[in-house]
Amino acid sequence: MHPTRGSSFRIIFFFLIFHFFLLATHGFHLLDPLTPIELNQIQTIVKNSHQDVNFHYVGLDDPNKSNVLSWLSQNQPNNFPDHRVAFVIVRINCQSHEIMVDLSTNSILSDKVYEGNGYLMLNNEEQKAANDLLLKYAPFMALIAKRGLNLSEVVFDTLTIGWYGEKNTKRVVAVICYHSDGTINFYMRPIEGVMATIDLDEMKIIGYRDPLVVPIPKADGTDYRESRQDPPLDTHI
Ligand SMILES: *[C@@H]1O[C@H](CO)[C@@H](O)[C@H](O)[C@H]1NC(C)=O
Ligand SMILES: *[C@@H]1O[C@H](CO)[C@@H](O)[C@H](O)[C@H]1NC(C)=O
């Protein structure tokens, strides 16, 4: 997934630079997003109170309107707010926690286990860990060899299995694969039929199937990037 990764890095980099530019020129506002320093602070606070933490969401807990108005009336807009709270969602020991972190006092304001339906979002680390399981899974390696595919060109897609109203569903993903060899548009080249289901809490393969060998479409003509030809439309009407 190099193309995707490259462009998202560029976007994050742009926003970081943009953010620091704003800080340099305009100072802080109460509703500014969490800074890199604050994100590190949150990570330390949460990790000090829990082991084996998997972060899934970290964001500013927006102060309510009356707080914002009173801050604006009492402060120069350039002053860093003296009270900031972050809302954090983490997975710890097969449980989803919603944690409020007070950045001004370096403490956890509240920490509750979410008992409702549905699960938190997938994060990159667990998707990579799930994909890496397949790279060590003998039946999958045998399949790649049998089809004469290049393992370095295999791209994984990690999808949740969904929630269909059952009382207890495990936190499971279905991993499907593509062979990008010769194209950037790997979605056009599925390794049809292969699917592994992986329990993310246990981090192990709980299901695997490759029932049939379907030919992989050829890579020619699958590139969707901007053409180097002249523009097809004549705009001089
Ligand atoms: C706004 O938040 C403060 C605490 O930060 C609370 O005391 C106050 O009741 C809240 N106001 C509203 C309208 O929710
Ligand atoms: C497999 O793919 C890698 C990465 O694209 C490439 O460097 C290598 O030459 C390929 N191997 C074969 C046997 O084609």
From TrEMBL:
Gene Ontology biological process terms, A to Z: amine metabolic process
Name of the featured protein: Amine oxidase
GO MF annotation, one: primary methylamine oxidase activity
Taxonomic classification: Eukaryota, Viridiplantae, Streptophyta, Embryophyta, Tracheophyta
Positions of the Copper amine oxidase N3-terminal domain: 122-216
UniProt PTM comment: Topaquinone (TPQ) is generated by copper-dependent autoxidation of a specific tyrosyl residue.
Cofactor notes: Contains 1 topaquinone per subunit.
Membrane spanning residue stretches: 12-31
Domain Copper amine oxidase N2-terminal: 29-112
UniProtKB keywords: Copper, Disulfide bond, Membrane, Metal-binding, Oxidoreductase, TPQ, Transmembrane, Transmembrane helix
SUPFAM superfamilies attached to this UniProt entry: Amine oxidase N-terminal region
Gene3D superfamilies membership: 3.10.450.40
Pfam family, one: Cu_amine_oxidN3
Protein origin, superkingdom: Eukaryota
EC number(s) on file: 1.4.3.-
Cofactor(s) needed for function: Cu cation
Family: Belongs to the copper/topaquinone oxidase family.
InterPro entries: Cu_amine_oxidase, Cu_amine_oxidase_N-reg, Cu_amine_oxidase_N2, Cu_amine_oxidase_N3
